[in-house]
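Hi support team,

I submitted a single chain yesterday and got back a structure, but I'm not sure I'm reading the token output correctly. Could someone confirm the output below corresponds to the sequence I sent? I've pasted both exactly as they appear in my results page.

Thanks,
R.
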Amino acid sequence: MTTAVEVAVSTEARTIVYRTRGAQHGPITRLMSPGDLGEFLKPFVFLDLFGFDVGGGHKGFGMHPHSGIATLTWLIEGDTLYEDTTGEQGVLRGGGVEWMRAGNGVWHTGAPAPGVKRVRGFQLWVALPASEENAPAQSFYLAPSQVPQEGPARVLLGRYGAAQSAIPAPAPMNYLAVQLKDGEHWRYTPPAGHTVGWVAVNAGRLDAGGPIDTGELAVFEESGEAIDFTARGDTSFVLGSAVKHPHDLVMGHYSVHTSRATLDQGEAEIRRIGTKLRQEGRLG
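Hi R., thanks for writing in. Yes, this is the structure output for that exact sequence:
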């Protein structure tokens, strides 16, 4: 069970104010959830780092619901089968991106494609603004070739330099997947107003005014200043920056909304879709 945390506020140059290795749940490491760091890093409210060998018995993620948020899955390795109740289904290749704006309610599923030996990636939840939290569900599936790149950064969401994601960000935010070679330096200058900033390392080690190791999430003080990185060994990580989400986080089992009324509306739609799936024999 996650617990609330306190994040220090720094008055000096931008620095790391909190770090965590999250909580392990089998093949999943939960680095952030709405009840802890999500309160400080919203609109980024949830982050899982997952990795499993298919031969180990893990069959993927069964059909499950969401509302009030969008999920972005960055598939680092391993093709997966996907299906969602917007009517989309297919194969997402390793290096691709799944964006699911749950809005008023959606169910979706993912499983390793036939012949895949290992699956790795990050799943991020983004809190939606009030104008979109009960909008119709909408999904995007981007092949690796459709994920733009600027320098060492692949733009999963938002814009960096001349590279802009095809996914319509619901509010001002960037989510980048970055690869640096041993000893390589990189400076990230956030857009104006992006005072929320964090990184999570999935391979290697970073120096960003302090060490950030594999499997660790580091939170930077709220500021618009640039962040400097140096790789210690070949290093891969994801970075999020955004204008802070101004709304409360009102949580359900699979949902995050801005009020009890909008949560009730989303959960009612989840139940309606779930009933339909059961009648069709698509849920156990």
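A quick pointer for reading it: The chain has a mean pLDDT of 92. Let us know if anything else looks off.

Best,
Support desk
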